[in-house]
Amino acid sequence: MCLGVPGKIIEIYDGSGLRMCKVDFGGVVREACIETLPDAKVGDYTIIHAGFALNILSEAEAQESLAALRELTAVEEELGMNHSNDPSGSQEG
Predict the structure, then answer these.
(1) What residues make up the domain containing 19?
(2) Which CATH number does the domain housing residue 11 bear?
(3) Which tens digits make up the pLDDT trace of 28-85?
(4) CA quadruple 53, 29, 12, 9: dihedral sign
(5) Phi, psi at residue 78, to the nearest 5°?
(6) Which of 46, 38, 2, 4 is nearest to 22 (CA)?
(7) Which end of the chain is less enclosed by CB atoms within 10 A, N or C?
(8) CA gap 79, 51 in Å, rounded
């Protein structure tokens, strides 16, 4: 299962003839192709999968998603379901 996390486009540039961008995921910056999103601009939020931008989100949608992820993380920590030490990502317990 994939989890789409919103990131903020901080730079747009041409990379080998493709429209590329750098996306900030809360301090972690990744490169992605935005060729399929011609209207994307710096400051927009997007969901990236396998190095490709899938869609543009409003800031409100992005903040709502991020808040839900923070809430989920807090609940997991409260229940002792922290899997950060398990490199396989297994949820067996």
Answers:
(1) 6-78
(2) 2.30.30.140
(3) 999 999 999 999 999 999 999 889 999 999 999 999 988 888 898 888 888 888 665 5
(4) positive
(5) -60, -35
(6) 46
(7) N
(8) 33
Provide the token pair at 87: 């490199």
Cα separation of 77 and 40, whole Å?
A: 35
Report if residue 24 sits inside a domain. Answer: yes
Evaluate whether residue 15 is within a structural domain.
yes
With beta carbons less than 8 A apart as the criterion, state whether 12 and 21 touch. Answer: yes
44 in any annotated domain: yes
Name the one residue in this structure whose structure tokens are 């808040």: 67
Can you give the pTM of this predicted structure?
Answer: 0.74
Task: Report the domain count for the chain.
Answer: 1
Counting DSSP H helices and E strands in the chain, the numbers are 1, 5
Angstrom CA distances, 23 to 5, 8, 29, 33, 38, stand at 11, 5, 5, 10, 16
